[in-house]
Predict the 3D structure of the following.
Amino acid sequence: MNPAITPSAFPALDLVPKTDEPQKAKDFKSDQEVRWCPGCGDYAILAAVQGFLPELGLRRENIVFVSGIGCSSRFPYYMNTYGLHSIHGRAPAIATGLAVSRPDLSVWVITGDGDALSIGGNHLIHALRRNVNLKILLFNNRIYGLTKGQYSPTSETGKITKSTPMGSLDYSFNPVSVALGAEATFVARTIDSDRKHLTSVLRAAAAHEGTALVEIYQNCNIFNDHAWEPLKDGDTRDDMLIRLEHGEPIRFGTNGDRVVVRGADGHVGVVAASEVDDSQILSHDAHADDPGLAFALSRLSDPHTLADTPIGVFRDVSRPSYDRMAREQMAAARAAKGEGDLAVLLAGSDTWTVS
Amino acid sequence: MTSPAQSRDHQVSAETSATSPPANLEHDTPLDKDTVTLGQVVIRLAGDSGDGMQLTGDRFTSETAGLGNDLSTLPDFPAEIRAPAGTLPGVSAFQLHFADHDIMTPGDRPDVLVAMNPAALKANIEALRPGGDLLVNTDEFTSRNLAKVGYDANPLEDGSLEDYRVHPIPLTSMTVEALADFDVSKKEAERAKNMFALGLLCWLYSRPTEGTMAFLRSKFGAKPDILAANIAAFEAGWSFGETTEDFSVRYEVKPAPMGAGVYRNISGNLALSYGLVAAGVQSGLPVFLGSYPITPASDILHELSKHKTFGVTTFQAEDEIAGIGAALGASYGGALGVTTTSGPGIALKSETIGLAVSLELPLIIIDVQRGGPSTGLPTKTEQADLLQAMFGRNGEAPVPIVAPCSPGDCFDAAVEAARIAITYRTPVFLLSDGYLANGSEPWRIPAVDTLPVIDPGFATEPNHGVDTENPEFWPYVRDPETLARPWAVPGTAGLEHRIGGLEKADGSGAISYDPDNHDRMVRLRQAKVDAIARSIPPLQVEDPDGDARVLVIGWGSTYGPIGAACRKLRAAGHSVAQAHLRHLNPMPENTEQVLRDYDRVIVPEMNLGQLALLLRGRFLVDAIGYNRVRGLPFTSDELAETISDVIAHLDTPART
């Protein structure tokens, strides 16, 4: 075993070589000038990721960021790691091939709501169900930014944009619901402006073996400013955000006066704390094998008002990753039959000789 | 059949296999029959999709290969898995040409047709050579089955088959009768009729039987009753041949002289799969196949999934785009990325191929062509994806193209595609087709130490400003000879870099929108692909008479039919030259000179003139196309007729 490979707080990264050198956020900054619009939420996410990575203690050369197309997908250029800026929607597929063939890499996918959920929807759901060792950061700003302001699959119905002057007709996707429906083993949501929460979610995602989907509410101040404002504004935030903590009763509101309960009909909803006994408050279980409750929580939020929006880790369950099982199959084949012999393969069993 | 690259030395004798009847065969009343020696035979087996004709053909082929005949096969089956029984759309056929000499095609017209039902007869009788042998399963010629395919009268009785030697055989009932004492159902007994037919054919053509016995034992070993029944059916067919007065003679076809070596029979898809495994071994790179099932390419996915001991990873993706995406991702990580598909899949992969052109990473794209456009003819052959491979991308996105010319050549073509991909850091197209994929021929097994060694030459050190205090790695610095860029894989310390589909600055690889830089990069990518021509052999011309004025030039699977046509013409006293392009992009450096050496250039293609368009556009040569897209390979007769027509009019002015 490579001496640089040691068990850590991040067992999913056991096969990735570690560094002895102390790392700082600036070590992960590339020499490229960052070219997002001033005020873009992407800056905060970039800073959070660069600030968090030293915690993993990985060799920089064993980290790869893979992206698709869109504003967020410029992210790899700004990371002093290996990086691949690919084509629209296909980053999960490309990263899958990389992660399956290279267990010694920490592979991150950077994508947006259009890239991941519209043109790349198919790759996203299949990466999630396969549980390939990828960490997918989905920057959701509910708008197409790089093409200058068309509605996206997460835009609220009726949204007025350049391509929908009379309002969009689509019903929107809820990325967390999509991921849970796609058999994801790790699903979380966080917000660009909450550095501490964002970092805690990145930490949990990095520790997870298999595909992790992290939806990051991100503000596009040019084409969809204030999209998440009710969840950020100090006056409204506490009454709207539900901070999920594993093992804790789900309680929120200015004075903790709102709670999540399961009604007599099985429906999960929000009620005033005063209306129920404490024993009726649902506790959050991110490790539940059944994704039903996590899905019910994902449905609490109102796509228009953003009322009752949970953030945090919805689901974090353990299943062997695709790439681990693929390696195990290869090892089993070699254990049973030995290393392949090309001459034997080419000859087969049915030959004749001409002399 | 020999490929252009192989030796044509046939001065060696072939080892013969003893032909003996099955060991425990009862010889009740064997007639003393003469054995007639034939030079070559074309057999076509035709039946319902569920009748096991492909399996019967494979077995007969295997015994024939073991006997040392040269051979060529053509399976021809419907896209439907099981069309309604007894109907024309459900007919599945298998044609085998075997000979005591070097042959190049599965044969234009069968000498022998085995028709398992009226639909098989109706669909195939026109192909049978007049005077040919027709073996029919009379049990299936019921009024209902006849009506199902539109026969008003029973063709076995109305005289319509008098041009042929008809052998009416109640195959089904004789099989059931032979299995009366076995513990199998009537349905299972009936299903063994293909083994009865195989036994009869093996007797008729003096084929050995050991291989079929071994095959049956391995296939039905777990079901002793079924195994015994199949063996008994096979032996009953053999005995029937020996005792019936319907066949007065049996035949033998002596082994063909072939170059010394160890041979096996191989299909194109299998040879291609082995070529990919070999490319992995010879380059030291793990092979990563990202693929989505599609006819007629899926067999490569199936085959490679068996070879994990060679470090081969197969990934069945959610769609064609993810298949190539994963392969490209693996290449980025230092694997030999491969994707396999057919024409419709290429259409979906185009954007990712463009990305691979821009990233300049090795990638092998295998297109086993089938009839198009759209879903087209999934199980039939065609070569109409050449221009898609050449130009089917946005922007100036040159991709090298290699096309094998025979089933066995698929092995060498795969190794060659890998050589180009790895050496030049580029995606490479390998254009096979349905005929090569499923057809088979004897293949001289290459010694591993004769295969090329391919050096990936990964970058390990900075390559810019190496004499300064801060040496850097620039991902788009080029090798002066190949113009290839360095391949630095993740995990290599100090070489961290970012690349993507945006235009890159020459050298540094940083994003660049500079107009002159873009013009330079477009030309550099083209020049890199053009430079591959320096590493490929010159175009060979076969012109044994040395005075030909007409050149026939083809590519891909038409090599066999064109070669057979040229031989026929030469035997008839005409001079004709043949050349075959294995590299379509870039073409060999002497291609233009070869074309200019002849008064007329004929380009037969199973498309509407795609290579002809390239030759005309590039070399201003007035190429004459011969184009048919019937989903079937050319016959040598039709090509010979076309070529002789051109020869006959040589002294009239060319078209203007």
Summary: Residues 322-337 of chain A form the longest helix (16 residues). The first strand of chain A starts at residue 63 and ends at 67.
